[in-house]
Amino acid sequence: MRRVADWVTVTSPSTEVTFRPRRARAVAIGAAAAVVVLFTIVSFGLTGATGDGPAVFQRGDQAAMIGLGVAFAAGLLLFLRPKVTADARHVKVQNVIGGYDLPWEVVRAVRFERGASFASLELEDDELITVVALQLVDREHALEGVRALRSLHAAARGQSRTGSAPT
Predict the structure, then answer these.
(1) pTM higher than 0.85, yes or no?
(2) Fold adopted by 2-20+82-162
(3) Which one of 94, 96, 149, 164 has the lowest number of neighbouring Cβ atoms within 10 Å?
């Protein structure tokens, strides 16, 4: 049995931990809602003539403005995607755009350096993968996540080197 965090204990290879950013999620949801409301309010202001020209705002223009607000909000909601999931065999990183599913054998270290905004995975081929799910602004939650990943990484590396399960 191996303790990963205050609330997670690795007892078998099927134990899985998942972390998502907290503050960025709240900001993204609030900003998306504000954008939809703002574009909806602006759309109701689109009435009558467009100025000195012959064009006139119609319902379609209002609907298009609301549609733009929904499209921009959907773009903001992409910031809900970041997630890192790990177990004894691999780590799966989902960033805003794109993701990775890596066995622990290719990960050299789990890093969260002083001054860095995000945690990262250093790979054996010297590549560095940013883990957007573990952000500096989340403080203790991010540290918990890094500690859990480091513990799982150490357990997996110990198991792969010795060929036996860690105790």
Answers:
(1) no
(2) PH-domain like (2.30.29)
(3) 164
